[in-house]
Amino acid sequence: MAIKEKLKNDQNNLISKLLKLLSSRSIHFILGAGFNNNFLPLAKDLLNTIAKIKDTLNLKDDKKIDNIEEWINEQIQVHPNKRTDIETAFLEGLKEDLTLDNNETYKDILKQIKQIDNEKDKEEKTKQLEEINLFLKQFKKIVLKSSNGNGNNSYIKKVFFWTLNYDNLLQKLLVNNKMPHFVIDHENWNSNIIDFSFRNDQTKIILPSYFIYKIHGNKNKPIIPANTKFANILEDQQVFEAYIKMKTLLMDTHGKNLVFIIGYSGNDLHIEQIIGETISNNNQVIYVNYDEKEQGDFNSVEENNVLTIKTSQPLNFLTELFGLILEKLGDENGK
Q1: Class of domain 2-38+120-332
Q2: Where in this chain does the entry annotate a coiled-coil region (predicted)?
Q3: What is the pTM of this model?
């Protein structure tokens, strides 16, 4: 309740501002591992592998590891001359610890990690699922009300989800919530579906297009660019095309994009550059960052067209925020 009450007290600022930003904009969500980290987590069975790699290659790193691919790339950045050694050690360690076939390749191993369940119990997974589902439900209501309740052509035209995760949870929830969408990955980056929109002829309600862009593919067809974050992305055509598409759509209109960044750690140098250029292009960017210090609360800092929110409950914060925006939209439309 603390988040909702604080938002109510602040609604003349944040909520009113967002109401203005929602019209005639494309909405973008950049979703990092913190949004839904149920793929490539560090399971208990992999701790021995990581420990062996550290010892074998003399890697001094005491930081908590919660994402294997991320950790590998960080080590490659710190030890660029050991890239092959790190990948080989990781591969051999997993073969031994997980009793895998000797003919498995580095990418084959990473694909098989999708079969390893994470350490979260079912109750935690269910809670996370409910939070994401409620977040989407509230956002859908905002889209419909802002798009069809204002009596003019000022409405949310497109919604983009840029996910760095491999799982298919997001598209499943969009289907469940009857949010028509397209999924774009390395197999159809150059598709021309971007101009599609939906309209219900009976209700005259405009249904904005939803797009899911899977930058790293999915768990069935993952893109595992072990050297992408810190080396020349031109070496991987699939990833290069993904970043170009992301940059193009975020920069296509000057100041006409509203960008929410959720659960993103900021350690992808190429995405950081794209976000920086998006800000320079006068688009509004809202970071929603996890901060365990803000238990049941939030703090915000605004500088130019960048708003940073720190909270221990990022999805709950957005759900409460969207709920209050809906109330405001209802008041303005006389509903």
Answers
A1: alpha beta
A2: 106-133
A3: 0.72
